[in-house]
Amino acid sequence: MKGKMFTPVVNAIDTIPEKYRITAPLDQQEYLCDGTIKTWTGPQQDVLSPLCHTVDGSVQQIRIGSYPLLTEEQALETLDSACQAYDHGRGMWPTMSVEDRIKHVETFAYRMQEKRDDVVKLLMWEIGKSLPDAEKEFDRTVAYIGDTIDALKDLDRISSRFVIEQDVIGQIRRAPLGIVLCMGPFNYPLNETFTTLIPALIMGNAVIFKPPKLGVLLHRPLLEAFRDSFPKGVVNTVYGEGQEVIGPLMKSGKIDVLAFIGSSRVADILKQQHPKPHRLRCVLGLGAKNAGIVLKDADLDHAVKESALGALSYNGQRCTALKILFVHEQIVDQFIAKFNDTVGKLIGGMPWDTGAQITPLPEPNKTKYLQELIDDACTKGASLVNENGGAVNHTYMSPAVVYPVEPGMRLYSEEQFGPVVPIVKFTDIDEPMNYVTHSDYGQQVSLFGNDAELIADLIDPLVNQVCRVNINSQCQRGPDTFPFTGRKDSAEGTLSVSDALRVFTIRTLVAAKETEANRRIIKSIVTKRRSRFLSTDFIL
Hints:
Blueprint: E1 26-27, E2 30-33, E3 36-39, E4 44-55, E5 58-68, H1 72-86, H2 92-95, H3 98-113, H4 116-127, H5 131-159, E6 163-165, E7 168-176, E8 179-183, H6 191-202, E9 206-210, H7 223-229, E10 235-237, H8 242-251, E11 257-261, H9 264-273, E12 281-285, E13 290-294, H10 300-312, E14 322-328, H11 332-344, H12 366-379, E15 383-384, E16 392-393, E17 396-397, E18 400-403, H13 410-413, E19 420-426, H14 430-438, E20 441-442, E21 444-448, H15 452-462, E22 468-471, E23 487-488, E24 491-492, H16 497-503, E25 505-513, H17 516-527
Parallel strand pairs: 1-5, 8-9, 8-11, 9-10, 11-12, 13-14, 13-21, 14-19, 18-19, 21-22
Antiparallel strand pairs: 2-3, 4-5, 6-7, 7-25, 12-24, 15-18, 16-17, 20-23
């Protein structure tokens, strides 16, 4: 069904395809620590699906399970486990050869694929992701692991040679940093968690990872694969309230890398808790308010198609979503008419429904927050300009197109992270350019137009404000071989398949003066394979 007519209520279990049914709650009591799947018998946090059912005449979100609310004691237990596995860089994992670490990751990837159906099903139930998007997230993650392995092989081949400069012999390789704390986001709880976790692991770090509050249970099917694929203590999981379990980890000063994808507010809190800020390296994916700029000579049909995809794919719940559209005054009326027609054809449905494009929202009270943004804009002169726009039915909201949005409205500056599309009319190109320049965010921008000279003039200043300029296409992360990062409050560090290998490591070298004695020592070490670092082994 379209728009407000869709109801996110499961009336009967037999209306769900059998493959995607959850017939009993999944009450997870396990967590992975020191190579053992341990059982927690303490308090649990209920997991509520964005999908609803009727109980005694009242519509309620479906309880699909629970996860452990661990305490500081268990959090520090996982930290001790990771520290022992790393052992100040002397552990089995950080000193293992690159080739052998790759074999462990390949084993995990194979085991992971056996759990595809389980993970895909939970992506639908936990965060309302449509079946095609859930399958794509899983498959893309597996492909990312393979691409990471290939990139590491290339990196290691380059590093397997010696350099002689100014009578000094040296070999330069990349070494791990230590203990990595990985925390992913709810909107891509598998993929974006693994885009930090996998490169951190394969480069020899020990990892503690905490799933996001929404998208916890889908990691449960992978615990055995982690346990069986890596040496004990190399991978550990922690669950619970951030203040209870993450605060103690950061305050310990033993976390060497914080890999966090979420809000800048939470990132700032975590960073400030670390007592040794110069020791802590941060890899952060934070907020974004990516703008789409539609120039007066744009191909309207194409601009509308890309803008709708960019703004409303997975309900607009993507950091790379187009979260505000600037449209030239000469074409804004035509653009809105075509845009509304496209949005009106989007199909609301359950995640497993064929063709479902707009699905229920997983965040608590999300529809209330989005309605507040819409109401604020409407009280200041904007209007809902599409049919059924903003209609709410429990956890479901029909996409809302709001126009004209202007400075001073919350929608102009706040990252809505939902199916609300603010449209701004502009006369002079300086208006959207100034918006991008003065924004707190600096991830991406999309330009729609056909004047090559004008686009060129816009590209040069924009690349100094954002980290990706998309020409006649929506903002996006992929391909994963491209750098993914942001300026200002949007990111720290760069994630791509190859960049991620570098961000979780540091360049380290072994050097010696070019004397006969040193030549003899180095040759003996290399030919007899006495060192896994100082080596000319070549991975095919």
